[in-house]
């Protein structure tokens, strides 16, 4: 209300609420780097690249090309420091137990891909 140009009983605007604290960037894991559950511990390695970006690109290409074999499966891109050769990023598909991993790798090879089983 105003009285002669003066505001009577002014209503105070609510104080702006501070945004909720965000976790530090290093605590936020992306889908590409988040660990994939693999109770059996065996993997089918389908590529190895010098950068994480090229490993992710390989995964996209290969998962599309061989979708009938590996489509819908997760991926584990693992950094490996290889003495005398440098850093590589392994593109691995979690495959459970040894028998399952061998069968998956065999199907992948039959479709035209290249792979090997690792732990």
Strand content: 25-35%
Q: Which spans of ≥5 residues are poorly predicted at pLDDT below 50?
A: 6-33
Roughly how much helix do the residues carry, as a percent range? 25-40%
Query: What is the distance, rounded to the nearest whole angstrom, between the alpha carbons of the first and last residues?
Result: 76 Å
* Class from secondary-structure proportions: alpha+beta
What best-fitting shape do the alpha-carbon axes yield? Answer: globular
Major beta sheet, specifics?
A: 4 strands, antiparallel
Query: Biggest sheet: strands side by side, in what order?
Result: 4-5-3-6
- Number of separate helices: 3
Gyration radius, in Å: 26 Å
Number of strands: 6
Q: Write the element-wise H/E pattern from the N-terminal end onward.
A: EEEHHEEHE
Query: Please, what is the average pLDDT?
Result: 80
């Amino acid at each position: 209300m105003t009285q002669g140009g003066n505001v009577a009983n002014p209503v105070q605007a609510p104080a702006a609420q501070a945004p909720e604290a965000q976790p530090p960037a290093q605590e936020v894991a992306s889908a590409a780097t988040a660990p994939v559950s693999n109770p059996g511990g065996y993997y089918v390695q389908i590529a190895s690249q010098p950068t994480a970006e090229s490993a992710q690109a390989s995964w996209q290409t290969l998962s599309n090309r061989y979708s009938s074999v590996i489509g819908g499966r997760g991926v584990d891109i693992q950094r490996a420091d290889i003495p005398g050769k440098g850093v590589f990023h392994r593109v691995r598909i979690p495959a459970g137990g040894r028998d399952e991993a061998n069968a998956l790798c065999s199907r992948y090879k039959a479709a035209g891909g290249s792979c090997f089983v690792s732990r």
